[in-house]
Write a structure and sequence with these properties.
Elements lengths: L1 E4 L5 H13 L3 E6 L4 E6 L16 E5 L19 E3 L2 E3 L5 E5 L6 H14 L3 E3 L17 H14 L3 E4 L6 H7 L2 E4 L7 H8 L4 E5 L6 H13 L5 E5 L17 H8 L4 E3 L1 H5 L2 H14 L3 E5 L17 H17 L5
Parallel strand pairs: 7-8, 7-14, 8-9, 9-10, 10-11, 11-12, 12-13, 13-14
Antiparallel strand pairs: 1-3, 1-4, 2-3, 5-6
Helix pairs in contact: 2-3, 2-10, 5-6, 9-10
Length: about 325
């Protein structure tokens, strides 16, 4: 249930309502906007019968949350979520761009790439430390060593770093070294992992599962939010269809659909969607034009010899040119990049 407090509701009245909700055995979530304080009472709806909500001092109105995902729905929070990751603001008018190699291969390559993508306009650095590969014989990442290299690259460039977490046992390493914890497509419904990252104060980039519906995706985001972490970025990276011309099928329609259903920021990963470097530019342009809040693009200084996903990685010079093109598209839709 959503409880809307009056404009002039006092802290004492807000706290009183909060105590009543907790006493009823419900989970409490506060959202303080510019005009109103919204209180979310989450749990068994039958428990709400114990509380005469509309009779409590300071309450303006109450209403049920109809969506199965509560905290991440537009019903719960009408305003877009905006939060900071280091010196970067996610969810605002500026479209943020995460760029870097699929995998961290060595320190020199990573730092050089970080400097080049920053010069081109990227605002965050990506790099895989633990790689979920289809084959057990493919490169699996450098582990903690790669996380240390990411931290070094951040010190050199000031770029917040993004890396994928696969195992709850590694969460302390990620808290120590990274700014954004990525949950990859294969782990979108790894509910134990989602709960664990929900207990952290790190921003979480949640990629859509390869066959995940939008409802399932939002329910996965709800798992994170239910543990207290609201700094969630949804990332569309293409879904599996019958089409084989591209690595995956980019669902650009997911952006306006999500904007209607949720207040969370929405990013698009054109690299994994297309699977080819030459498709990154048109897919990225479509993402900006349709209202995405950010992009995640793979960039490698030597794609031909990359240990992972070289075919879809851009060279830094190509990335620089694409960023200029994206700037023009962003301007056309009253955004900046």
């Amino acid at each position: 249930m959503i409880i809307v407090m009056k404009k002039d509701a006092s802290e004492e009245q807000i706290n009183h309502v909060a105590e009543k909700i907790k006493d009823a055995g419900l989970s409490l979530h506060l959202s303080k906007g510019k005009e109103r304080t919204i209180i979310g009472a989450i749990g068994d709806e039958a428990l709400m019968t114990k509380v005469q909500v509309n009779a409590l001092p300071g309450v303006e109105s109450s209403m049920p949350i109809l969506k199965p995902y509560k905290l991440v729905s537009r019903e719960f929070q009408e305003e877009n979520s905006v939060f900071d990751v280091g010196n970067v603001t996610v969810g605002g008018d500026k479209i943020q761009v995460i760029a870097g190699p699929c995998s961290v291969e060595n320190e020199k390559m990573l730092v050089e790439t970080a400097k080049l993508v920053k010069a081109a306009g990227a605002t965050m650095l990506r790099g895989g430390a633990f790689k979920p590969r289809t084959s057990p014989y493919d490169f699996q990442g450098l582990g903690e060593e790669a996380l240390k290299y990411l931290a070094t690259a951040r010190e050199e460039t000031g770029l917040p770093v993004v890396s994928e977490l696969m195992d709850p046992r590694d969460i302390d390493l990620f808290i120590k070294y990274v700014d954004v914890i990525q949950i990859g497509a294969r782990n979108m419904q790894n509910f134990r992992l989602l709960k664990e990252v929900g207990k952290t104060d790190k921003a979480i980039l949640l990629k859509r599962g390869i066959s995940g519906t939008i409802k399932e995706w939002l329910m996965s985001a709800e798992y994170i939010a239910s543990q207290g972490n609201r700094k969630i970025i949804l990332c569309e990276r293409g879904i599996r269809t019958y089409e084989t011309a591209t690595r995956n099928t980019l669902d650009v329609s997911a952006v306006p659909v999500l904007k209607e259903l949720t207040h969370l920021p929405v990013f698009i990963d054109p690299s994994h969607a297309g699977g080819r470097w030459d498709l990154v530019e048109p897919l990225a342009k479509s993402a900006v034009a349709i209202g995405a809040d950010g992009l995640m693009i793979e960039v490698h200084i030597d794609p031909e010899n990359a240990l992972c996903d070289g075919a879809q990685s851009l060279k830094p010079t190509k990335f620089e040119g694409i960023m200029e093109e994206l700037g023009r598209v962003a301007q056309a839709v009253d955004r900046t990049i």
